[in-house]
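Hey,
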Amino acid sequence: MRNVFDDFKHLWPESRHQTLAPILKSVCYLRLPSEDVQLVQRLRPETTVIVSDEPKLINLTAMASMGFEHIIQASRPDFAQELLVAALMISRPLAFQQNPMPFLLAPPASATSLELFENHLKVPIRASTEKLGALDQLQTFLAQTSRMDAISDLCLQTADELITNALFGAPTDNHGAPLFLKRPRTSNVVLPFNASVNLFAHTNGDRLIIGAQDSFGSLHKDLILKRLNELYSNPKAPPLYSGLGAGLGFKFMIDNSANFYVHSQARKSTFVAAGFILSGQRANLTASKHFHFSTVA
């Protein structure tokens, strides 16, 4: 199989080739639908990026269920950026887990765009009673510039989902058993001692990343992808209670953002984030999504 560097190095300045070559040469790609899908059987999904020319969500989740963790849309103007994100997540997974923002946001087009407002927000959350306060802080962050007005509601609803999932779905005991999964989402829960959940938002003036990171690493990838496939195949399918939620929150976040990122290290940490384009709602609601859903043991 061809590697990303050999076929896509023209996307980056020649001055960066020496630095990028060791990373990009270790990552293969498959271009769909133009290439033979039978190649899939000969690939290592965890080190192969799907470059898609057909932005259909059902194809996206179906490929993810086959083990492919990165599906990138070739028609998007940020194709080069997300291709590099995928390669870095594959080749440097632990570095990504420790500090994901440098991976996700390219340097701003101009420093001037960031001089008018704070470009990052981080809010630690230890109890469900703190969720409204965290959302208020995010709303204040979004209100700093009119460029975020059109997507403010999408961002706040996404943050609500992220916080709820992190507080109710992620916490486990010392044996890995869920602590709060079956609790009503209106109940009050407090994280165990030394556990953490952080809501964060970062922008480079053109894009905005909103996410949450927990210290449990309890994500059940196969079950989430199975449910997403069911929902995209049959949107009217009734919720399937599996003890791990219905998957509707993940579908909402994917549908309403331009980019979606999940990275989970078992029993260590889970990072879930949505990326938004600041040119308005329409750019985010399109079916042309960049999708990253990776796990490491």
